[in-house]
Amino acid sequence: MSEQRFSSYIAGQWVEGDGAHPDENPSDLGTPVGQYGTVDGARTGQAVEAAAAALPAWSLSNPQQRADILDFVGSEILRRKEELGRLLAREEGKTLAESIGEAARAGQIFKFFAGEALRIPGEKLASTRPGVDVEITREPVGTVGIIAPWNFPLAIPAWKIAPALAYGNTVVFKPAEIVPGCAWAIAEILSRAGLPEGVFNMVLGSGKVVGQALVEHPKLDALTFTGSVPTGHALLKQAAARALKVQMEMGGKNPLIVLADADLDKAVECAVNGAFFSTGQRCTASSRLIVENSIYDAFVEKVRARLAKVKVGDPLEQGVDIGPVASQAQLDTDLSYIRAGHEDGGELLAGGDRVEWKTPGHFLAPTLFAAKPSDRIAREEIFGPVAALLRADAYEHALALANDTEYGLCAGICTTSLKHATHFKRNAQAGMVMVNLPTAGVDPHVPFGGRKASSYGPREQGRYAVEFYTTVKTAYTAA
Q: Most buried pick, 161, 294, 456, 460, via CB within 10 A?
């Protein structure tokens, strides 16, 4: 498979950038996906300037024009979902089925927001003063900076770029460094979609250089970020100093409660899927499994048996359930938490080792520790196939354990009790709640986001995206 060269896209032109950096294939380190060039702070500034210059005309553009452009992008992504899925699988490491599914989701998101471009809400109200009309309208927030992570390199950029453009904003998109190919694929389709010059820009490079230049630029009006808590907090401080409008998704330490009345086989599938599929590299992953005492031993036995059937390997190979860890840096993090699990006195129940494959790659066995609530693996986000198993005396204890975290993205429960399911949906301190489902896996047309340290600002996805990507104007007219 020949290598591609991935470039930045600024003011309607492809920009090669500095040098040639390998785009690693985590399943086969000897065959990179391609090469890419990074841009510097000055080039990033040019991208923001181009977006700001394009804003006045684009913000007043015909909504049908915006809808047609987004529909074109969504249709092409859906038509090419197998091809884009293979690229994603090679670059990020998801299995081919998961990767094709993500590509399809990205296409569906663009199509959803094509419709939303024609449904921008507004109101007309009666004034308390005779002869006066009041109109409440939504206008674009302006030039939007997008900083996206590597774990969903098609879907997350889609659910940020599509609403930004639908509501008349211009965009400067900075993808994660380890997934330039997927970012380039989206940018290449957008470059042919009929957008005016400067409306959409993509800059490849490091967060320290490109991300810093982006958030500091005086013509940037809003910033949407998905990534780690430390990076998000650092960006938030910089954004606050400039009074930027900010939206942030910053991870989770999501609990899945399994009660004694649960369908145990279904609960095991929920736990294994939520904790370990996509190599555990999902902010919604079930990284804390909280199991009621009376079924704890049976649950452990069934999970071990299920994990023994899980195949780790090249995501393009048929029969593989879990691909590699996305990068050496993330693999090092995962291994450090496995050591921490041992150091804190946890009992290793499954995995814990590298997996040898036909090609050199970042393969790691799904790892489960019996842990204490105070252990690092039970409190800190790992972002890999490493989960902590906790004992609970009863439902009330399980709920307390589930809420005992600084995060609040997603929470799940497996139970056949309507009483406990109803109580949990109301009392779980999370932005999203799942009952008898894996915590990982959400629909593209509903709001996505959490509470506490997981999220900041308005929700993403669905009709709620309008809250971030627009600003409200109230206009009075006298007769």
A: 161
